[in-house]
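Report of the visiting student (M.T.), summer placement. My assignment was to run the structure pipeline on a short list of targets and document each run. The first record concerns Alpha/beta hydrolase fold domain-containing protein.
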Amino acid sequence: MTYIKETYTFDQYLSVPLAATFYRPTSTTDYQSTILYFHGGGLIFGQREDLPESYLELLTSAGYGVLSFDYLLAPESKLDTIIHYAHKAVNWFVDEAPTSLALPNAHYYLFGRSAGAYLSLYLAAHADDRPQANGLISLYGYYTLNEASFSIPSRHFLQFNRVNDATVKALIRSKPLVAGPMDERFILYLAGRQSGQWLNHLLTPNLKAADYSLTTQQLQSLPPTFLAAAAQDPDVPARQSRLMSKHIRDAEFHLIDTNEHDFDRTQMETHGLAVYHAMIEWINQHSPTT
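After the run finished, the structure tokens were exported:
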């Protein structure tokens, strides 16, 4: 085992604790930086401890700690609240890394998969007075909610059994949450994509998709970014990653020849491990010198 697993509570929203799992490299003498990770799941499902063991081993053996955060899920919490507490998660790391986490530095990379990549990109573009990330890692992510395919019924998801409105209403909880049964939470996302109403789970009438999307100018201001996406992604169009690679000043883009959205989960041996090896090489090249 190349890491020690630790758990921290970094905040609380109403009665819901927000926690982070830290995968600390067992060799502290070669500690490089910390990768702050946000999971995927359409901002509706998923949970913080979803990175496969093989990837955790690769990252920690290379000297990188992985700090995986909870974040609030929609539709019980809306996007403004989700992002607010995601900001607080990163701020907590920056403030606490040298002391509470006993780390030699507060250097960090933001890493997300799918919806987690969206959060990472948004947090980097709105860092305000927080020290900027040393780099970004976006696997099959998106930078804008003004994506046509997000607001119309998805042909891909319409291949699944149709979810009716009564089922959706029954699955929405009365209290906020950061994780839930996959067989229930995925159904909520599925229903949103089948109906073209996914964004309605995230936004209220006073929240506009444009306000939670990055502009070309914001993309140009981002730190170095590693991008990977499936060429025939049926969930998040690869053009989102392709456009990011054109506008971000320092970007490395890997287009994977597959139609599996989360290829690093479903195709670990054929595509996933190669992408993570390339990711580590890229991080090494962009590691801070001090």
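The first strand starts at residue 3 and ends at 13. The domain at 3-286 is CATH 3.40.50.1820 (Rossmann fold). I thank the supervising group for their guidance throughout the placement.
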